[in-house]
Each structure stands twice: as C-alpha cells, then as structure tokens.
Amino acid sequence: MTTDTQTPGSGAVSEEERWKYLDHIRRTPGPFTDPDATAEEYLAQFEKFKVFGAGGLGCEILKNLALSKFKDIHVIDMDTIDVSNLNRQFLFRKSDVGKYKAEVAAKFVENRVKGVSITAHNKRIQDFDESFYKKFQLVVCGLDSIEARRWINAMLVSIAEESEDDPDGIKPLIDGGTEGFKGQARVILPSMTSCIECQLDMHAPRAAVPLCTIASIPRQPEHCVEWAHIIAWEEEKPFPKLDKDDPEHITWLYEKALARSQEFGISGVTYSLTQGTVKNIIPAIASTNAIIAGACCNEAFKIATNSAPCLGFENNYMMYSGNDSIYTYTFKHEKKDDCPVCGRQARPLEIDPRTTLQELLDSLSIRPEAQLKRPSIRAEGKTLYMQFPPQLEEQTRPHLAMSISELGLEDKQHVVVTDPAFPLEFNYYLKFKKASQE
Ligand SMILES: [Zn+2]
C-alpha cells in the first residue's frame, strides 16, 4: 500500500518505475502480436492512438485509459457537475460544482498523469460530424442514454461502410453501461460484427405496471407512487404542470402516495422513493461502474497492443450481474440481417390491419427493436404521417385516426420510418396478423 499512496511527481515514484510493468507488456511480443514489428514500433503505434470517451462512466474510463498510457484522449460530455455526483465521480471536488465535467476531469487527469493529453469537449456527441470521428482509432463509450449510443453506433457503422477496404475505417466501439448492480461491456467492430442497433432488444424498455393494478389493487410502494403520479395528479391538478425537479411537487405526490399506502397497508413509501419512481432513477453504484469501466479499458488496451485476444469477432458481449451474488456471462451476439443500421433487409412489422395509424406509431416507442419516440412514417408514394414541418403535420394528422386498411396499405407493403433522433431510415414491411391469432 505504501507506494500506491505516494503522490506521483513528488519524486517518490519515478516515471520509469511507474510504467515498468505496463511497458513490459507493450514491448514484449506475444503469440497475438505482429511478428514483424519491433518493440519500438509497438510503443510508437500505441502512442498515436486517439481515444474518445464520454458519459457517466467517464471518470473511471478516463483514469484507466490514462494509466494504460493512452496519450491522446478526447472526452465529450455536455453535463455540468452536480453536488450529487461527488459520491462516485471521484475526479470532482465540491469547488467544481457547476463546472463542465469534461473540462474538470481532463485537467485533473492531465495533472496527475504526466505525458497524457486530454482534450475536453463540453458538447453532445451529436454535435460533431463524420470528419471529427474519423480522426479516432478507438471509441470508448460510457453513455447513460440509449439514444446517444444508437447515434454514435450509426455514425461509426456509416464511417466503416464508406471506407470499405480501408481497415482504418473500422473504429472499434467499446461500450459500457451499468444499472445498479448490473452492467455490460461489449466490443463492436462496426459493419463487421453485431452492432448496438442489432442488440437493441437487450435494452427493452422496462415493463410498465398495468394501470388497473395501480388504480385498484396496489401491492408495492411504487404502485402507490404511480397512482399519485398518474391518477391523483390528473384528477386534482395541484399545479398547472408537473415539474419533477420541484420539491414542492414531489412533496405533494409523496403525501398522496403515503396516504394511499396506509389505506392498503403497504409500507415503504418515502420521499426519495417517490422522487426515484417519478423520475425513473436507478441508483448508480460506484463499484459496478469500476468493474465495467475496468473491463472496457482492458479491452481497449488489448485492441491497441494485441497483447491478448479481446472481445470482438467471437464473443462480443459480457454481462455482469451483482444482483444475486455475482454472475458474469460472455457470449456472441449475432449480427442481424434486418438491422436498420448494419443490415440490408427490411424488418417485419406485425400488425392487425384494423389498427389505427396512431396505435401503430405509439407501438413503435415500446417495441423493443424500435424504441422511437417521434416517428414519422411513409409508404411508397404516400406520406402517412410526418412530424415536421408543421404544415405537413397538419395535412397528415387526419390519417392518425384511420386504420391501416382504411389507409389502403397492404400486407407485405414497405414502409419507411424516420425519427429526428437518428440519422437513418428504418425500413419495415407490414405483416398482417390474421384475426384468428387474437
Ligand atoms: Zn446492426
């Protein structure tokens, strides 16, 4: 423990000493390294690596990458530091509250690890275009939104497809994510292996509690909170619009939920449970973040050095669960031919022809393989519903109440769905359900 606690740069640990073991791995050829390269070439190649990381696992990833001797790192995060981050995002101090996460984290790690250059971007990943992402060899993501993951995935697949035979066009995407005690680390070789969109059903939206349970027979404290949130609020409208960040509003919901829970003899309704349920907060656990970020950065190190086989062509997905003791499982997620990002085929969209267009659009937000919040839809030669521009929205709005058959759509007909959050088109063909299937 003694050497670990000494401050680097104080003279206690020389730079040579600090990197001794790491450099040994990087200099020594192994069974997986290029037999023609010299030790110097290895080191030089590694130092050219540009890596970019972003998001909620950011502190861990940034620290790990710098200590793995990646030299040129870019970090993107648009968030500012909140006091609630301080318990686990260890690069931030109280005096940093309100400042940009990317900037503070970059400065901290640069000060601590000599020789690393970290460029901070206080932006969204969507604010950059292809020419920016083309500069990197490796992308490490610890994003907290599925939308952002899908976006960067589509970007890297399109770069890979465009550069066809150029191996530099394939920028491995290492993605980590956690949810409480659970997490995953996966490696995507864009256009070659199963991508995030292929794996989207692994992130199925949480099953909602049926409204009847909430309305009539609550069994859990969360059901009481949902009752206050969905039913009591609508009936009483204590404030014009629910603001989930306003303590007064949450207090109102909490008191309503508490009264209901007492009526049904359910315990466990607290202010923070109310806030968590309404805002759908899953607690972030520092150690899960450390495990997942560690797994991701080890894969980054192996990809850069070829020192050992990494996740990729064969097994490409590692899931970790600490919910019930510890369990991990690594498997190969297959590429899907009908993936809207990396596949070539249209997907079936199973539907009863009596369904209205509105119901069809609503279903796109909960279908695990779609998860589109603001879809527009068109068929060949026919604009069915467009969210934008406003004139077109108004023109197509009457279609929403019409059924699929009233709109003249046929079984096996192709439809194209778009959503402003994604720079791509989702190709589907309608697959009519027979009435007897119900
Ligand atoms: Zn795919």
UniProtKB/TrEMBL annotation:
Its EC number is 6.2.1.64. It catalyses: ATP + [NEDD8 protein] + [E1 NEDD8-activating enzyme]-L-cysteine = AMP + diphosphate + [E1 NEDD8-activating enzyme]-S-[NEDD8 protein]-yl-L-cysteine. Gene3D superfamilies: NAD(P)-binding Rossmann-like Domain (3.40.50.720), Ubiquitin activating enzymes (Uba3). Chain: B, domain 2 (1.10.10.520), Ubiquitin-like 2 activating enzyme e1b. Chain: B, domain 3 (3.10.290.20). It holds the Pfam family ThiF. InterPro entries: E2-binding, ThiF/MoeB/HesA, ThiF_NAD_FAD-bd, Ub_act_enz_dom_a_sf, Uba3_N, Ubiquitin-activating_enz. The keyword ATP-binding applies. The keyword Membrane does not apply. Residues 349-433 form the E2 binding domain. Pathway: Protein modification; protein neddylation. Keywords: ATP-binding, Ligase, Nucleotide-binding, Ubl conjugation pathway. Catalytic subunit of the dimeric E1 enzyme, which activates NEDD8. Belongs to the ubiquitin-activating E1 family. UBA3 subfamily. PANTHER family: NEDD8-ACTIVATING ENZYME E1 CATALYTIC SUBUNIT (PTHR10953:SF6), UBIQUITIN-ACTIVATING ENZYME E1 (PTHR10953). This is NEDD8-activating enzyme E1 catalytic subunit. It comes from Epichloe bromicola.
